[in-house]
Automatic annotation (TrEMBL):
GO terms for molecular function: 3-hydroxypropionyl-CoA synthetase activity; acetate-CoA ligase activity; AMP binding; ATP binding. This is Acetate--CoA ligase. Its EC number is 6.2.1.1. The gene is acs. One of its GO terms (biological process) is acetyl-CoA biosynthetic process from acetate. It comes from Nitrosopumilus cobalaminigenes.
Length: 631
């Protein structure tokens, strides 16, 4: 029996689930009416597996729903409370951002950007990033945002793939006190890309840049345009954006999202999961370069006219107290971050958050990886002071919005640390075996989604064939996300790690999350990663990598024995790693996810494959060295 926590916000709307269960199409039909449409749809869902079109015949605009609809009531309300890494700050109202977006939409038009064209955006976390995205959406251009930490090669690949004629960048961005020369990176990326016609440069850091014939300055362009640009009336399935996945399991995939369905999904989940109110100060720490930033920094908060904090820099800069300082300064009420960030904060110790006033918080969330129960409890106690519900939201770039989460805005149920709880209303998610048959409760298997949902990707950009094989070929007419999971007796879902990473030991299958959470529950352990490597006798053996908390003095031999004992007691002798390696950091994607496939490749003496989204090459070098030393 896992520990449960009874904490909600007192909401209980049973009707919503009842309606969703009886007919998911008419349920979503009703939700879509929360948005402003230019013309209504004729058909709720056109499902020609594996392609889904939502709200067929309806016309809508994302930028209109994010901005125009708030002008009468909220034009002087703050949309973005921006905090620069260097301490700069800006307060941008709904009225101001509306003008900026219209002007920038006119800038794009003046450069020849038309409906359906792709526009690449490579900007740091500054307000001009959502402004540029909403301007694209306004005129029906498809934005493709690239995380501002990526290299010239990554940009070249993505710009080439999307054939963007216009790129929006900045002279530089601040990261850990240093200037990242974004414009130079773009110059390198596009030397061979003749189809790129214009590069728009925002001056953020005023560092020296070279100006080519393609370059135009953001401010100069903005001086010469009108501040009125009506939103285009676009079909519901008009492509809103292309976004590449995090690349945890290999080469990133170019996910294409539409408009009407996507916005419906976001509008609903932002209300149900975050219980958003007009008075809230929302803060999501995700970079807009990832889907969490697209959905829950840009689109969902804007659809609701919410006020949010946007932070430019690294979460531990200039020191480990930065996040708590921001929460205190802006009186944040809803905080949404990642398990990887929480493990880092936890590693720094409780004294730091304890010295800040975090009493404004009323709701906490996580996304990105399974959250270890130990980390969940720390978040609940040390940050939420045992009064804030935690939503553990499972979703993917491909799903557009969250699909599994506790929804305190509509219901109150007991929480179990480490479980995302249940699917959102209107989606049919279950756990199946290799043959696609539902497994019994508490049996491990593969997560599948049995009906289309509004935020579902349209396809992979320019690659319907890959779209079909990656997501729709394992099971007929069922979406396969590639995650390993189980459903317990109460119908709660537990995400156990990537299906590709499952540890197969002597006929038993263990999800990486099970073993890693066990190791992380040792008081000295900050993070861990497990993977399987081939073994002549046993077929496969487990190796594990462990990062210790700051200031731990325990001897590694003693610690290894303690960890092995813990694993034997909590999971069973079968899960005992052949070797535990102590390292100072784990290889992660830029979005903060552990890249177990690299550990596996090192353990296997194999080539390590696509590392374009790797955060820090030094982690790989260290892991390899520690591994080789113990061979
Ligand atoms: P790629 O598909 O390129 O390998 P990625 O899967 O890491 O990269 P994302 O779309 O950013 O790209 O991540 C989605 C994945 O993150 C999910 O499939 C799941 O494995 C993991 N994930 C996200 N949220 C959660 C969560 N709350 N609990 C468990 N796992 C999660
Ligand atoms: Mg993925």
């Amino acid at each position: 029996m896992s520990e449960t926590f009874e904490i909600g916000l007192g909401n209980n709307d049973n009707n919503l689930r009842k309606k969703a269960d009886s007919d998911f199409e008419s349920f979503w039909d009703e939700q879509a009416k929360n948005l402003s449409w230019f013309s209504p749809w004729e058909k709720t869902l056109d499902w020609q597996p594996p392609f889904a079109k939502w709200f067929v015949g309806g016309t809508i605009n994302a930028s209109y729903n994010a901005l125009d609809i708030h002008q009468e009531t909220k034009s002087s309300k703050s949309a973005i409370l921006w905090e620069g890494e260097n301490g700069d700050s800006r307060n941008i109202t709904y009225g101001e951002i509306f003008i900026q977006v219209q002007k920038f939409a006119n800038v794009l038009k003046s450069l020849g950007v038309q409906k359906g064209d792709r526009v690449t955006i490579y900007l740091p976390m500054v307000p001009e990033l959502p402004i540029a995205m909403l301007a694209c959406a306004r005129i029906g251009a498809t934005h493709t945002v690239i995380f501002s930490g990526f290299s010239a090669t990554s940009i070249k690949d993505r710009v080439f793939d999307s054939k963007s004629k216009v790129i929006i960048t900045a002279d530089g961005g601040y990261r850990r006190g240093k200037i990242v020369p974004l414009k130079d990176v773009v110059d390198d990326a596009i030397t061979e890309l003749d189809f790129v016609e214009h590069v728009i440069v925002l001056e953020r850091t005023k560092n020296k840049i070279s100006i080519t014939s393609k370059d135009k300055l953001w401010t100069e362009l903005m001086n010469n345009v009108s501040d009125s640009c009506p939103a285009e009336k676009l079909p519901s399935d008009h492509p809103l954006y292309i976004l590449y996945t995090s690349g945890t399991t290999g080469k990133p995939k170019g996910v294409l999202h539409g408009t009407g369905g996507y916005l419906t999904h976001l509008h609903s989940t932002f209300k149900w999961a975050f219980d958003i109110k007009d008075s809230d100060i929302f803060f999501c720490t995700a970079d807009i370069g990832w889907v969490t930033g697209h959905s829950y920094v840009v689109y969902a908060p804007f659809l609701h006219g919410a006020t949010q904090v946007m932070y430019e820099g690294a979460p531990d800069f200039p020191d480990a107290s930065r996040m708590w300082d921001i929460l205190q300064k802006y009186k944040v009420t809803i905080f949404y971050t990642t398990p990887t960030a929480l493990r880092m904060f936890m590693k720094f110790g409780d004294d730091i958050p304890n010295s800040f006033d975090l009493s404004s918080l009323r709701l906490l969330g996580t996304v990105g990886e399974p959250i270890n129960p130990e980390v969940w409890k720390w978040y609940f106690k040390t940050i939420g002071k045992e009064k804030c519900p935690i939503i553990d939201t499972w979703w993917q770039t491909e799903t557009g919005g969250m699909l599994i989460s506790f929804l305190p805005g509509i219901e109150t149920i007991p929480l179990k640390p480490g479980s995302g709880t249940r699917p959102i209303p209107g989606v049919n998610i279950t756990v199946v075996d290799e043959n696609g048959d539902d497994v019994a409760p508490n049996t491990k298997g593969y997560l599948v989604i049995k009906n289309p949902w509004p935020g579902m990707l349209l396809t992979l950009w320019n690659d319907d064939a890959k779209y079909k094989t990656v997501y729709w070929s394992k099971y007929e007419n069922c979406y396969y996300p590639g995650d390993y999971a189980l459903k317990d007796d109460d119908g709660y879902l537990w995400l156990l790690g990537r299906a590709d990473d499952v540890l197969k030991i002597a006929g038993h299958r263990i999800g990486t999350a099970e073993l890693e959470s066990c190791m992380v529950s040792h008081p000295d352990v900050a993070e861990s990663a497990a993977c399987g490597i081939p073994d002549e006798i046993k077929g496969e053996v487990i190796i594990a990598f462990v990062v210790l908390k700051q200031g731990v003095i325990n001897d590694s031999n003693v610690l290894e024995k303690q960890l092995v004992d813990k694993i034997r007691t909590d999971i069973g002798a079968i899960a005992t790693p052949k070797q535990i390696y102590f390292v100072s950091k784990l290889p992660k994607t830029r979005s903060g996810k552990i890249m177990r496939r690299l550990l596996k490749a090192i353990g296997n003496n194999e080539q390590i494959g696509d590392v374009s989204t790797l955060e820090d090459g030094a982690a790989v070098t260290e892991v390899k060295q520690v591994f080789d030393e113990l061979q």
